[in-house]
Amino acid sequence: MAYRDLNEFIRVLEKKGELVRIKEPVDTHLELTEIADRVSKKNGPALLFENAKSPSKSPVLINAFGSLTRIKLALEVPSLDDLAADILSFLEMEKAESVMDKLKLLPKVKKVSTIFPRKVKSAPCQEVVMEGDQVDLESLPALHCWPLDGGRFITFPLVATRDPETGKRNLGMYRLQIFDKNTTGMHWHMHKGGAYHYRIAEEMGVELPASVAIGPDPAVTYAATAPLPDDMDEYLLAGYLRKKPVDLVRCKTNDLMVPANAQYVLEGYVNPAERRREGPFGDHTGFYSLADDYPVFHVTCMTTRKDPIYHTTIVGPPPMEDGWLGKATERLFLPFIKKQLPEVVDMNLPIEGVFHNLAFVSIDKRYPGHARKIIHALWGMGQMMFAKMIFVFDQEVNVQDLSEVLWYLGNNVAPKRDISFVEGPMDVLDHAAERPLYGSKMGVDCTRKWPGEGFSRQWPDVIRMDPQVKAKIDRLWPKLGLD
Predict the structure, then answer these.
(1) Quick check: is 217 catalytic?
(2) Which residues pair with 360 in a beta bridge?
(3) Which of 149, 233, 283, 322 is labelled catalytic?
(4) Whose CA is closest to 254, among 214, 296, 215, 299?
(5) Are strands 247-250 and 118-120 parallel, antiparallel or unpaired?
(6) Would you say residue 22 lies in a domain?
(7) Side-chain half-sphere CA neighbours of 263 within 13 A
(8) In the structure, what pLDDT confidence band is assigned to residue 93 with cuts at 50, 70 and 90?
(9) Is residue 432, in this structure, part of any structural domain at all?
(10) 85-89, 106-110, 155-159, 378-382 — which is least confidently predicted?
């Protein structure tokens, strides 16, 4: 059954031995980050700080998604690969355009017909309502994560907006720097859905309503991070993951809908053309993102539960909690890539590559130049456009094994022949790019080369033991006392 809320997820984590309660007083200025960072580097448990120093005195939850085990608990599945096939069905259903397409998908449509978002009139997230002068963002136990950060940041906010022209809603995750008691920065990257809605509002010269949910159930939080196509609904994906509708409630001071089971909701608006300096911020690349001018979020109302839990995260040098969210996305969306490129066998976006720096891909190579075709095709697929370096291997290479990847890369690549360079869109956090948002990318063909690729020599065989000898030694091994 779907988690009713974050509180129930916490109870499950504790029952499974995946959560530790911290009763010692801990300052949200740097100290909490240092503890969480040490724990995440050791692949340690989720942490619930019961005595975090802040005016609100609310408990602080962190590292809740910080392992493969907890990711599977969050999404309530024994295997991410099994769930991945399910998500492909969901994506196919959402993308169906013709009547014939929809008829073919009737069984799937019936399966998901009961998980569309559901409107409710009252909600736990509105048990306490503070409007106008009652709003005080500085009371939140938001973290000052790293020494050079520009201030305190809300790091796990689910930001809800709506296209001013079409009414299409978006739910994304964009950090918020707290400026004062009722304003924050709105760190919208140019390529994101919320930023697109804001650009339209600016062109129209109107303010854009925005609301922020903190701490809904884990499926909703994950859905806000998922790289969905622009026309797909994050609440529907969350409902599909939960196998139960997401309850939504209308905000008090704007007409946006937010998760009814959230711990906190911030309601407000973003003015056209208003900017304020935001940052620096210790980011998921492991380096500080530089200060820059971003839109300002004005909070008109803050609603909470009676006893809210503040859900947060930190980012920085990997491995961190966000790396596991990235690995979940890698597994869950691999079938979608395979649907478009059937020759793809597997993909690894290593945590050290911070989502967009490195991609290792194995393929069933079928013709000369096949690896290059895959490289360019991947650059044309959604957020894969940000992949700075793509390495393509033959299907027998286990791209999840970094040792094996480096071995084949070193042996199979002739740099002048096998490395290609292009220019294109870059992630805004790529500090090495030649200029912001645009720069060079590298594709590397790490496959065995065929005569049709201009290779005239004989490609050597990999050293492998005779299978019969291996089987004999397998039988003998227990008697050798070498384990």
Answers:
(1) no
(2) 348, 391
(3) 283
(4) 299
(5) parallel
(6) yes
(7) 25
(8) low
(9) yes
(10) 106-110
| CA distances (Å), origin 381, targets 333, 377, 384 | 12, 7, 5
Q: What is the mean pLDDT of residues 299-303?
A: 97
Per-residue pLDDT averaged across 74-99, rounded? 73
Asked whether the beta carbons of 365 and 371 are under 8 A apart, the reply is: yes
Phi, psi of 278, deg, nearest 5? -125, 145
Nearest alpha-carbon partner for 49 in 30, 31, 25, 65: 25
Structure tokens at 428: 């805004």
Residue 300: give the domain boundaries.
6-311
CA atoms within 13 A on the CB side of 447: 27
Tokens found for residue 288: 């500080």
Last residue of a domain, one of 261, 294, 311: 311
Residue in this structure with the two tokens 């005779």, named with its chain if needed: 466
Q: Domain with 126 in it: what CATH number?
A: 2.30.110.10
125 and 39 co-located in one domain: yes
Residue 408 sits in a domain whose CATH number is 3.40.1670.10
**Type of residue numbered 85:** A
Whole-angstrom Cα Rg for the chain: 24
Say if 321 falls within a structural domain: no
Domain total in the chain: 2
Residues 190 and 68 in one domain: yes
One-letter identity of residue 103: L
Contact 197, 191 (CB under 8 A): no
Amino acid at 86: D
Range among 181-195, 219-233, 368-382 rated most confident? 368-382
Which pLDDT score is estimated for 56? 83
Query: Is it the case that residue 281 has pLDDT exceeding 70?
Result: yes
* Residue 100: pLDDT over 50: no
